[in-house]
Amino acid sequence: MLKSLKISNYALIEELYVELDQSFTIITGETGAGKSILLGALGLIIGQRADLSALKDQSKKCIIEAQFNIEKYDLHLLFKQNDWDYDRHTIVRREITPNGKSRAFINDSPVNLSQLKELGDQLIDIHSQHNTLTLNNNLFQLKLIDSLADNKSLLSDYKLAYSTYKSFKKKLYQKEESIVKAKAEENFLQFQFDELDQLKLSIDEDEELEEEQSSLEHMEETKASMNHALNVLVYQDENATDLMRLGKSQLSDASKFNKIVEELNERLSSLLIEFQDITNEIESENNNLEYDPDRLEFIRNRLSSIYSLQKKHGVSTNQELIDIKSSIESKLVEISNFDNDIEELKLEVSKIELLLNNYASDLTARRNSAAPILESKVKELLIRLGMKNASLTVKVISNQEFSSSGKEDIQFLFTANKGLEERELSKVASGGELSRLMLAIKSILARKVKMPTIIFDEIDTGVSGEIADKVGDILKLISKELQVVSITHLPQMAAKGNSHLKVYKEDIDGETRSFIKVLNNEERIEELAKMLSGSKMSVAAIDNAKALLNQ
């Protein structure tokens, strides 16, 4: 419920503050006085885009602030999801700065426009002749039937199942697409795998082979060098081994008399042992060295195969080739399992499809039951609104495929005149007829769901005084369920309100400003009399105004 509205520096309004009645508020005023300005301000509160030209004084900030009592709207979850501070007396504020920037706040928490609109849709429904176009919208028509059928819980279950169904269908489609592509490249992958697998690669094999290749290719130089070393160290008459032994013998004699020489002799003894071991190993390795042209040819061919695959796959090590082989093997295993995966997914789709069909069938049954109820109630209200020959048929059209809302579409067929065939709303209903039809529908909804504050902008346009009286009765009835605000030019309608606000404008200091005031009983009589007879009030007009208020 909208409790109060405060506007600063907006259009013709410099400062304005108004509190609204919780049931039925009437707003009147001359054309151009500023009634549409109020709607524009409220539009900003519920997330409509701001326009810098709306600032009255371009050097100052525009502020629009509305206070709502939201305790009946069950909005705790919405506030929790958006991390807003919940308060049953919630304040929504919109600011437009002189540089054109717009900011919005919910209980002083900054929010973006989409968040503001999300909350605004739960708080205010601004209805004008333009809004009646939503009646032509099949989605709105479906939501209407679902509201009357109490389908909220069932529809929630259906949509959850539908989301799961779509997810599995998408996975199935992607898997089937993947298998087509995979099967096309399976032979190539198998060829690549076989090519790598046949090599039986080990991680450091290429480095070891390169070392062995180098050894075989330089075998002659190696043996020549080793033979020369052995000659110097062992085989010559004056070789290094004999010279070291002679040196040790000399030190042994001297070590008897000198401790340092004794230590040096021991070190030389150890060195001689190590030296002899080295020469033995050189001799053994020299004897084992043998040039093998067949082995060298094998190594060259093997390395050539390895290098070729490395180049082919754009890598430089055996480890990378082994990783590629492993990856290809995984893909081949995945391809071999595709058929099983697809069968499992098809089974899941069938299961969820069965559940979805059950929900859809229940929705269809409930919608078919709700359709004639809506038709009957709408006809009853339209008769009261002066459309005795009007009729509405709710057509439930079955579909073969699932949609996000079930397996049917809803279509409203309408005629306002006797003897004329019912057709789609957009093709047969005038603006005034649509307004009254929408009023009838919202009257029905008001008793069924917790709707927000409804603001009717001249819903009585184009109707007679008698019908305006009926429209007012219906709005009065709706106001027992929720807060109703109606902007009107007709006194019959204006007399129905529990509260009456008048919008007017004055020229002050060379500029025009809009104001609003709550009328007391005497002021209401005067305003109604003016609406009945013009600016020159007659005694009859005043008596008529009193009679309207006393009805």
What are its keywords?
six-stranded antiparallel sheet, 18% strand, 551 residues, 17 helices, 57% helix, Rossmann fold, alpha/beta, elongated, single chain, six-stranded mixed sheet
CATH T-level topology of the domain at 1-128 and 458-519: Rossmann fold
User: Would you tell me the overall average pLDDT?
Assistant: 87
Largest sheet: 6 strands, antiparallel
How many H/I helices? Answer: 17
Which regions are unreliable across 5 or more consecutive residues at pLDDT < 50? none
> Which architecture of the domain at 1-128 and 458-519 per CATH?
3-Layer(aba) Sandwich
For the record, the CATH class of the domain at 1-128 and 458-519 is Alpha Beta
CATH superfamily grouping of the domain at 1-128 and 458-519: P-loop containing nucleotide triphosphate hydrolases
What is the 3D form? elongated
Strand % is 15-25%
Tell me the layout of helices and strands.
Blueprint: E1 2-10, E2 13-19, E3 24-28, H1 35-45, E4 62-69, H2 76-81, E5 89-96, E6 102-106, E7 109-111, H3 113-123, E8 124-127, H4 138-148, H5 152-199, H6 205-217, H7 219-235, H8 240-254, H9 259-288, H10 293-313, H11 318-384, E9 391-403, E10 406-415, E11 423-424, H12 425-428, H13 431-446, E12 453-457, H14 465-478, E13 484-487, H15 491-494, E14 499-508, E15 511-518, H16 521-533, H17 539-550
Parallel strand pairs: 3-13, 3-14, 8-12, 12-13
Antiparallel strand pairs: 1-2, 1-4, 4-5, 5-6, 6-7, 9-10, 10-11, 14-15
Helix pairs in contact: 5-11, 6-10, 7-9, 8-9, 10-11, 11-13, 13-14, 16-17
